[in-house]
Amino acid sequence: MQLSSTKEILEQPVKDLLNFVQNFKKGKGLLIHGPVGCGKTSSIYALANELQYEVLEINASDTRSKNAVEEHLTKAVSQKSFFWKGKIILIDELDGLSGKQDRGAASAIAEIIERSSFPIICISQDPYIDKIAPIRKASKLLEYKELSPEAIYEVLTKEAKIKKIKYEEKALKQLARLAGGDLRAALIDLETLGNLEINDSTISLLEQRIRTSTIKQTLFKIFKTKDIKIARESFFNTDFDIDKALLWIDKNLPEEYSNDINAIERAYYYISRADAFKGRIIRRQQWDFLAYSNDLLSVGMALSKQEKNNQKIEYSEPTRLLSIWQANMKLSKKKSIAEKLSKEFHMSKKRFLQSWDSFAIIAQKDSTFRNELINKLDKEELDFMIKV
Q: Is the pLDDT of residue 122 over 90?
């Protein structure tokens, strides 16, 4: 959900952003960081709109390998924009890079930043994570802070007038406060509740929903809307992965669409397709397919129904399946670590797994042994071995 003007979002960060773009000097990029929904991506698109610049967006969580980064970015920095005054290259979701699995990607991005003739802007929630250190060194840092309720209220007011959404001023201010600094979430809630009118009653429903878990909020948005934008963006503010999302949707779908057997049939078709893409991701390590899985589980679910179910449904956690999934994920991590360490200890992977508890205890107690593992495992794997 993009805004058309930087005046709708922030002041000082946008001035720094404007200064970087207009006075761009080859050799340095810009790394924007801040909490979810504070206007990082929106401000770039709004600024580009005002300057009549093209934005070429690359998602780091999709372009994960060194070769893929070089292929995408080399083309981007070598081609001029024929129909625009300039070009901004935007690399979003740097947090999506995952350590050793994507080794070389961050360094490749940093190298291209240093030679690019166009401004390259990267976005991350946390700029100080180790895996993006090369990008941090090649960039200036620009912090976006959590938006105030007053700033969010101003945007909501303009958006409500544009979309002719009825609202009570007091209720709209409460909606702005409930967003917790997340403008994107506030805009999604505005559209979700817009059909009902924004008043004390609808805000009360929203407050109840906010007290539930994040995944329940996401299910509410997917099941209760037919708007493609709302459905797709419902996944943006969550930290659960596709496996967990699939289990939750599978568990609660029959009850949500109980009044429409055809909707259930269509929805399960989309679930099956999402699961097929998930399998391809695992087998081929082609993370581009993740976007298709996400769309099938979000947009597919939303468009499966003819009419939304106006009854309140209490979404329940798929405890049995979730337990199996968690056990499988735990075993998968153990196997991955065993693959790396079994050769170091001159034993089979099976034997290492049988001795797992002993190695884990040594790793917890012996700092010398733990330091040796630092060179063989990434931080996530080492933490897992110590804590399990």
A: yes
